[in-house]
Design goal:
The chain folds into 2 domains: about 10-120, Arc Repressor Mutant, subunit A (Orthogonal Bundle), CATH 1.10.10.10; about 155-310, Vaccinia Virus protein VP39 (Rossmann fold). The protein contains 13 helices and 6 strands. The protein has helices at about 10-35, 40-45, 50-60, 60-75, 90-95, 110-120, 120-130, 140-160, 170-175, 185-195, 210-220, 255-265, 285-290, and strands at about 175-180, 200-205, 225-230, 240-245, 265-275, 305. A 6-stranded mixed beta sheet has the order 3-2-1-4-5-6. Strand 4, helix 12 (about 255-265) and strand 5 (about 265-275) form a beta-alpha-beta unit. About 30% of the residues are buried.
Amino acid sequence: MTERSQDPVRQEEFAGRMIQVLNDSCLGHLCSLGHRAGLFDVMSALPPSTSAQIAGAAGLEERYVREWLGGMTVGGIVEYPPEDDGYRLPPEHAAALSRDAGPDNMAAVMQYLAMMGDIEDEVLSAFRAGGGVPFSSYPHFQELQAEETARVYDAALVDTIVPLVPGLAERLRAGIDALDIGTGQGHAVNLPARAFPAGRFLGRDISEAGIGAGREEAARWGLGNARFEVADTAELTGSYDLITAFDVIHDLARPARTLAAVADGLRDDGVFLMGDSTTARGPADSANARAGTRPGRHQRRDGPRMRKDAA
């Protein structure tokens, strides 16, 4: 076997990249803390301020805010202009970090880093013994998913996504039977139920906690046309004019069986509205995507609609 010589330049470059991965991972955790503590939201509305002023506005302990600001400043996320003698969050950064950013808020997504760290031992056990790790093991998973998707639904579900299907908004206004599978905490059911009161909306998910949250929101909003059931999406019953699946199919244990059940559950003029991630199909595709050669690599959602005769 021919021994491969080691390229010292390549080794040094890769070591530098791994250091950057470590640094960026730590910054990601700090961004998660900043989001959860409300610091980005507070700073986006403040002029250059001291750590004490920021902590006071956020209702937090100054010592911890000071340490957090140090990491954020070194990481280039927060600025400390010498002439201002205070910390500031540039508006360009706030546009990607504060809750006012809506679907563009990247700080909220950083919360997944801490969650994945919490579950690492169980994932390692699965590497060694096989099996899987259930969603129930992931702390706050549904809360994070609900927070992330709610930003998209609030901004686009009724006014942008529904109109992708010609005539669907009119049918919903007239009143049809709609089912959302893998509904999580049910926001994708309650929003259209409120916008289209003549429609009948049902959300199904395997999570009792998620279904409970959907019911609570429906009750707060006084929705009599939204219902929720704990059920496996691969075992659908009933027939529907509209079935939706938002960012859920790729997470299912039996996606093909679920899609077949969806096709069986659609009425003759029914519509399947699905949003999901664009993902690589193998190592070569992943490598091409990393190099920027795969067409449509910035596209985040596939398949705006599927009628029954095409399902």
